[in-house]
Amino acid sequence: MSTTTTVPRKTRALPPLMTLTDAAADRLRALYAKGEQGKLLRIGVKTKGCSGLSYDMSWADEPAPTDEVVTDKDLTVLVDRKASLFLIGTVMDYEVKALASGFTFTNPNEKGRCGCGESFHV
Length: 122
Description:
Layout: E1 18-20, H1 22-33, E2 40-48, E3 52-60, E4 67-72, E5 75-80, H2 84-87, E6 90-96, E7 101-106, E8 112-113, E9 120-121
């Protein structure tokens, strides 16, 4: 009689869902301290633009049951669970340029962007 033993497979650690650069953290702290005090930033993905998907940011009073709670640099950001597969490993930054400033995303899952930069696809 023979027996089979199953050895547990080592699982690879997933990258964090989202991380913040120092610039993004500083900007969020400023927003949370002023007009958006007591609220949380929710990040999601919407169908929009030439390439199909666009980042969507809104304010929430509290996490919804469908939110993933991300904590980085002592800050909390919410990620819509429907967007989490599109955002795994994304780095959120805040850039200030001559004519515009805003949050930007470096997403390792992106396969391309439209020419205007408003949308992406995975």
